[in-house]
């Protein structure tokens, strides 16, 4: 999956902030327990993937080099 080009400047800025925070929490790009760590970030991510045009949050995360991992993998 490749990144979708974001042409809306406000949306691009929002997505940049989302991934800055994700990188701060998950520098290894393995996302887990996001609701417990930062529910507002999870909410922003859930809104952004739809606005950009991804089918799922997981699809968007993969396009940016992240993956969601389960408790067993943590």
Features:
single chain, 74 residues, mainly alpha, two-stranded parallel ribbon, 2 strands, 57% helix, 5% strand, globular
Write a compact overview of the structure shown.
With 74 residues, the chain is mostly helical. The chain contains four helices and two strands; from the N terminus they run H-E-H-H-H-E. The model has no long low-confidence stretch (mean pLDDT 93).
Overview of this structure, please?
This protein is mainly α and 74 residues long. It contains 4 helices and 2 strands. It has a two-stranded parallel ribbon.
DSSP E strands, number: 2
Number of helices: 4
The overall average pLDDT, rounded, is 93
Q: Based on CA inertia axes, which overall geometry fits?
A: globular
List the SSEs and their pairings:
Blueprint (H helix, E strand, L loop, with lengths): L8 H17 L4 E2 L2 H4 L1 H14 L4 H7 L3 E2 L6
Parallel strand pairs: 1-2
Helix pairs in contact: 1-3
């Amino acid at each position: 999956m490749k990144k979708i080009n974001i042409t809306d400047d406000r949306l691009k800025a929002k997505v940049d902030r989302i991934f800055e925070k994700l990188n701060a929490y998950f520098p290894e790009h393995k996302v887990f327990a996001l609701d417990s760590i930062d529910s507002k970030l999870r909410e922003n991510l859930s809104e952004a993937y739809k606005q950009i045009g991804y089918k799922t949050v997981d699809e968007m995360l993969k396009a940016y080099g992240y993956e969601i991992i389960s408790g067993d993998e943590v």
